Amino acid sequence: MPFGQDGDAYASLLMNQGSGLKRSPSQKEFQSQARRDAERHLALEMDKLLDTCPEESRPAIGKQFEGYKQLFAQFLEEAGTAAAVDWDDILPPPADAVIPYNQLPNYDPALAREYLDKLVVIKLNGGLGTSMGCQGPKSVISVRNELTFLDLTVRQIEHLNKTYGCDVPLVLMNSFNTDEDTSKVLRKYGNINIKIHTFQQSRYPRINKESLLPIAKTAVVNGDNIENWYPPGHGDIYESFSNSGLLDTFIKQGKEYLFLANIDNQGATVDLRILTLLMNEKNREMVMEVTDKTRADVKGGTLIQYHDKLRLLEIAQVPKWHVDDFKSVSKFKIFNTNNLWIKLDAIKRVVENKSLSMEIIVNNKTLDNGLNVIQLERAVGAAMQNFDNPLGVNVPRSRFLPVKKTQDLLLIMSNLYLLKSGTLGMSPLRQFPSTPIIKLGTHFDKVRDFLKRFASIPNLLELDHLTVSGDVTFGKGVVLKGTVIIIANHGERIDIPPGAILENKIVSGNLRILDH
């Protein structure tokens, strides 16, 4: 029977493994044969898709498709296991595997230029701004003084090069969703003293959850079929960076390390103390910046010791009955900021040797037409186990300042932060280093709606906690202190008047200011 016809049964079989029942030799043989069939049928479909590519793009797309076939084979091998790790084998990282930032060596200004000339900065630029109601790449959302994430990043690198007389290039890893728009935006930086490079991460096909076959019928992407494809997470950077040719180019130029971070993390700037550590200890092939976990970070990946290796544990790998343990702030005290420092020749080694081992994250999605699909993804930090002498550095919270929602945007637009040379720093007028916890309701989800609800951004210097729910607007010059909770029930509206000072207040009901 052709695989496409019995695909439902096979997919069901895959998903129902790991139930604890012992399988007979005949079951194991059936599953092994089913895996081989699935790989063969997937390969045939991928070859058909490749045939639809324009001749000039076929070699590059072919490399990506080969990468997907390997990923799919790994998925089949792992499918149905109860979890990617044995919980009983998890140990805390050794004391010397994660060191506090304040124990790092101070950098020598006389060596700063030499060290910086060995560095490449890569920012992950594959995400769209759709979750915040914006069109195009997330990196072009205005975040401060009409400057975008990308503007701030370029200013940071430009300032670094100017201050130390060095040549640190900026590299953007785009996705097929962001590449064209980003290329247009980059034209405005033509006269800036900074070398900017881009490369595209892979474009992989979404597969039908039942048949485990690609839903795409052509490899040519347009507006009608774009949802048939996806960028496979930032773990794809190793192969994509190598395939782009940039990895070899930088190694030939004498570059030794890359600093990698999400472009929306406004705390992820080049740190000379971490760079100095790497230059002093050349045997370190990866450094992961971690920071202390709070209750807002319970889903973040953490470092563990597992089978004598330091590695990243993500919540997707945790057995369901241990998720609460994973979220425990007392048991797992740190989480991954996704700020990574990696040795370039080590990346070249693991890619060329095909020794890169990373866990797969299976992302189930339902398309607008109701079709259930699977995306196979990997996290960049999961490669830690492949590198020699990896290290965690417990950095200050200030190095983790991501913008995922408009409530994060409110923080960095406020007077809590000062902007200097593209870098945001906590205002010295803030008397304690922690940032306020802010929760904004659905009325504030989209950037456009968010901005309309503030005549000016409130003073947050003394704020601890803010919760806003419902139809709420803020006048000019509002000051928020302590814990402030504002709740407008359905059908009601609250207008916080200009100049209002709210300190440890709960505001509810209907408060509306009308012009007269």
UniProtKB/TrEMBL annotation:
User: Which Gene Ontology terms describe the biological processes this protein takes part in?
Assistant: glycogen biosynthetic process; glycogen metabolic process; UDP-alpha-D-glucose metabolic process
Listed under catalytic activity are: alpha-D-glucose 1-phosphate + UTP + H(+) = UDP-alpha-D-glucose + diphosphate
* Keywords, ordered alphabetically: Nucleotidyltransferase, Transferase
First-level EC class: transferase
What is the species of this protein?
A: Strongylocentrotus purpuratus (Purple sea urchin)
Name the UniProt record assigns to this protein: UTP--glucose-1-phosphate uridylyltransferase
Q: Which InterPro entries match?
A: Nucleotide-diphossugar_trans, UDPGP_fam, UDPGP_trans
The residues that the entry says bind UTP are K138, Q201, G233, D264, K404
- Region Disordered: which residues? 16-35
